[in-house]
């Protein structure tokens, strides 16, 4: 069996050591079915922390991609469940082939990752990053050995809590966003698996009543799908801002700047408390290429674009129509 290890954008393939094939039936026999788990109030791991410890932990996890899609309540559960682990230079944190027990986030220290019987060095963590998730997510033995090069401090989360929070969150997110995306007419042309990929890439965001979501003239960083609430689209004129559109659940905004590669053509404000699903620019380009023509046709109804943008939209639509004929 081959196990893929992602490191610095490269995939290394390492055969698992045979001596682990006869190990006891261990944690890898465990299964977790997020669809069958209706217990939101089950036993939660909570490790008390001082305000200073919690602040340090928040700073350590803020750039961890695995936690990017968690909502505020789930993120607090993650912070509650993590515990400190101090390490000394040359300590082994995890060893290739062992059962996965914890997921680790680095607060301080330098750590090196090794794979294979010859312990080939494949990566160095320098005072930031995380490791140990592969064995927990995929019920596989540890794919690499991690050793501390210096004294340091880690934050750890046990296997069961990690799987419950991350897998249940991913499952709920996909189910919730699949329903939202099914209601967006322009996405009807996407295959089911393409919508699932899109659902996985969406990031939840909330805005309070009156809060500005995007600002006219700013560079675009993504587009938005409305889950709850209403959004007012406004443009700046000599007399001040003027509302030119009001959007509701199932509608989207912010795509114009992504398609035209220009600054935001309008501002967007939360009319009431608004919940949106945010799609970053790189994901937009990768996942929504197939529906670009549908977006362009929809933009013909926008009243706030300038003549050069109108020309680009019309030319793109003519090109699309000629290809259809």
TrEMBL record:
InterPro entries for this protein: cAMP-dep_PK_reg_su-like (IPR050503), cAMP_dep_PK_reg_su (IPR012198), cNMP-bd_CS (IPR018488), cNMP-bd_dom (IPR000595), cNMP-bd_dom_sf (IPR018490), RmlC-like_jellyroll (IPR014710)
GO cellular component, one term: cytosol
PANTHER family named in the record: CAMP-DEPENDENT PROTEIN KINASE REGULATORY CHAIN, CAMP-DEPENDENT PROTEIN KINASE TYPE I REGULATORY SUBUNIT-RELATED
Protein known as: cAMP-dependent protein kinase type II regulatory subunit
GO molecular function: cAMP binding; cAMP-dependent protein kinase inhibitor activity; protein kinase A catalytic subunit binding
Entry binding sites for 3',5'-cyclic AMP 2: 255, 264
Family to which this protein belongs: Belongs to the cAMP-dependent kinase regulatory chain family.
Signal peptide start-end: none
Chain sites annotated for binding 3',5'-cyclic AMP 1: 133, 142
Residues in Cyclic nucleotide-binding domain copies: 66-183, 186-305
SUPFAM superfamilies named in the record: cAMP-binding domain-like
Keyword annotations: cAMP, cAMP-binding, Nucleotide-binding, Phosphoprotein, Repeat
